[in-house]
Amino acid sequence: ALPRGSLAGSGSGAVIWGEKAGGGGAKSERERALLAQIKQLEGQLAKEKHKKKEAAKAVAPSETRKRLVVCTQWLPYQVERTASGELRVLPSPARYVAGYATIKRLDVQWVGVLYNVTLSAEEQPVARRLLEPFSCFPVFIEEEQLHFAEEIAAEVLWPLFHYIPLSMLDADIDMVHKRWEGYTALNTRFRDTVLELAPLHTDLVWVHDYYLMLLPQMLREARPKMRIGWFLHTPFPSAEIYHTLPHRKTILRGVLGANLIGFQIYDYVRHFMTACASVLGTDVNVESTYILDAQQRTAVTVDAFPVGIDCAHFQSLLATRELKDKVIELQRRFDGKKIVLGIDRMDYIKGIPHKLLAIDKFLSAHPTWAGKIQLVQIATPIMRGDTARYVKLRNKVHKLVGQINGRFSTLAHAPIHYLDQPISPCDVAALCFLADVMMITSLREGMNANAFEYVACQQRNRGVLILSEFAGSAQTLGSGAILVNPFNTDAMALALYEALHMPEADREERHHNMNEYVQRFTLQYWSDDFSTELMTQEDADHELLSLELPEPLPRSELLDSFAKSSRRLILLGLLGTLINYSDFKEMHPLSDKLWGDLLTLASDPGNCVVVITGRERGLVSQWLGDLPVWVVAENGVFVRLGGPSTEWACPLEPVEPNNDWKASIKPVLKYFEERTPGSITESQEHTLTWHYRDSDEDFGEIQASDLQLHLKEVLGNQPVEVFLDSKMVQLRPYGVSKGAALEAVLEACTLGPRDLASVPSTRRERTDDTTARLERESNTSSLHELSEDLATAAAAAEAPPPPPQA
């Protein structure tokens, strides 16, 4: 409800909204009131969400424990053959596994593919039995299908999600379509494996990453009440990039089968919402955490859940004798030189060549540092194998390392110490403990865990982190890191110089800011936060957000209740209910019979008939004439809480909304109207509406989505909201809604009986016969006829009324 003045009624049914305020102070006063109320509501919402999460964490002793089924590309345990040919189980080095160990209130089960092993049909049951004690359930799929799925993930989705357009990869144009069957088959096998676990509707399923983007919808179709979460560890690209993806609709529909969708940072949340709006035509508001999909009649929660690291693991590792010995060894090896550390996968998104070029420029500008600096670059081979692109990348990196060392090395020292192989966790921790600077130059990345590990291990040196602004961790560690654009190698060279010369007090402050975040938002916090949020996605919540069409009004119960009640509130829509769309365009009046029935209902002192519409008040008055009904016009911009003699009121503020924004928006709507056959623009007093009901369905949806996104950019901070409703895009003042206006109606109804005007005279010729007839019939039969008329009118409408808003 918006702030407003006192609501008062008189014998004539007049309503006064506050007092008239002068000039410019009214708007600022309303803004302050709105901001105060928004803050209050946000606080209440935060408290309510906190209560729900705390309640979800608590497990009563008598309560049946819920399961959390985690679906990942690879299982956290591996199966290998011994020399004798027997199968045995080995743990996986996956970092994220430790995050689930602390979720004590849920029984965690894992579903995934076995990595780097092919089992015969006879060996598969053996592997299942070996893995079951570890709560792991393998997904078996034909090797060719798995290979096709990996190609889609590695050669299409991975590059695209990291902003590498498909047209620039020199790949087979038809590869996506040829391999798509394998990607679908992999998701289908995951679904079948999850269903074999016989999950209850109270169990949770957490699906991970771009390999399994179809799985949520597949599970939703099989188990409609199941609570499903999906989390993406990589970036999600902007809508313009995503549009180039084949099967883009199918993939988004697959993900929207989840109750909860998670990303690393809010940028990716915004990109995903924008992609859904432009590709699927969903109703999104980037300031909210929901996607409302009218076509599927679902509401999906979308939010950011930044991944952390297992800080306890590194703290315990730093205390071991092995690590201390390794630190001493490295100190002797590098002999007091400043250590610049880089730990990356040999991947084209990691920006290793950019880092090397920055080192080259730094040493060229400061040659005296050639003997005092040591870049330790670890380039871990990727799991995807030696494709042509990665071979080319590796050769380029090797060439740059050779060139730089060739120029700046001496017989005793080379400035770059390069390893093209993985190193042990102990070696990683020792290097992070010693390094004076760490350089992360990712060209695009979800959340770089190495940055967190470096901060966690810097317990003595307070080293400096140089971090790419295109890594997701830049949004979480940006207060302490030196952020750089990896494409600007000159700026990176300057950042390295700044890091090496940074005063101790600055390094201490920066490290404190980063370490505070790293220690608080750990891997365990991430997994607990996401799983708790998924637990709170109760059926009751989604009923509140549901876009399901309501059940038909039960006529017999309605008539019985109507006859027994003494006071009745009757709310009627206009377009699609009292008048159909074609008659609306031609400005045809209401039928005589319908008009007469409305008059009879509204003339009964026990009835309050309210017509609620998005049309402007002038048109509404023309259609309804002198009917003694209450009216809500322009979706709540104006209300008339009384008969035709009652003055219109604006419940928003003492001064009507400012319309300055309309001048800049009308040309935009005109542009889309000219390019979308069948569309029309409706200009009202305080709203603008672009209708595309008569346009081609598919093209109209595309144009509407593009228009909605364009308008949000053009409007900026204007106090105007954009709504994508049933076959129309509407702009209206902020805070306007039929629901808010309905509150005013309910409040006015409680002020006492209305003093309705006498039967109108201007249309007496239409009503004399109807009035005489109704005097001879009961109100119940009159309502019966009215309900038949309304049903006929609704059935005759060319398009159904819009679905209810959440």
Task: Note down, in words, how this protein is organized.
Strands 7-6-3-8-9-10-13-12-11 form a 9-stranded mixed beta sheet, sandwiched between helices. Helix 4 crosses helix 5 (215-222), helix 11 packs across helix 16 (489-500) and helix 22 (592-603) crosses helix 27 (764-775). The model is unreliable at 1-27, 539-546, 752-784 and 789-806 (pLDDT under 50). It starts with 6 loop residues before the first strand and ends in a 10-residue tail after the last helix. It contains 28 helices and 27 strands. Helix 23 links the parallel strand 21 and strand 22 (630-633). By secondary structure, it is an alpha/beta fold.
Features:
alpha/beta, 28 helices, 806 residues
Note the topology.
Elements: E1 7-9, E2 15-17, H1 25-57, E3 66-74, E4 77-81, E5 87-91, E6 106-113, H2 123-131, E7 136-138, H3 143-161, H4 175-196, E8 204-208, H5 215-222, E9 227-231, H6 239-242, H7 248-255, E10 260-263, H8 266-280, E11 283-284, E12 290-293, E13 298-304, H9 311-318, H10 321-334, E14 338-345, H11 352-365, E15 373-380, H12 388-408, E16 416-419, H13 425-434, E17 437-440, H14 449-457, E18 464-468, H15 474-477, E19 482-484, H16 489-500, H17 504-520, H18 523-535, H19 539-545, H20 555-564, E20 568-573, H21 581-586, H22 592-603, E21 607-612, H23 617-624, E22 630-633, E23 638-640, H24 662-674, E24 680-683, E25 688-691, H25 697-715, E26 720-725, E27 728-733, H26 738-749, H27 764-775, H28 779-796
Parallel strand pairs: 3-6, 3-8, 6-7, 8-9, 9-10, 10-13, 14-15, 14-17, 15-16, 17-18, 18-19, 20-21, 21-22
Antiparallel strand pairs: 1-2, 4-5, 11-12, 12-13, 22-23, 24-25, 25-27, 26-27
Helix pairs in contact: 3-4, 4-5, 7-8, 8-25, 10-13, 11-12, 11-16, 13-14, 20-28, 22-27, 22-28, 24-25
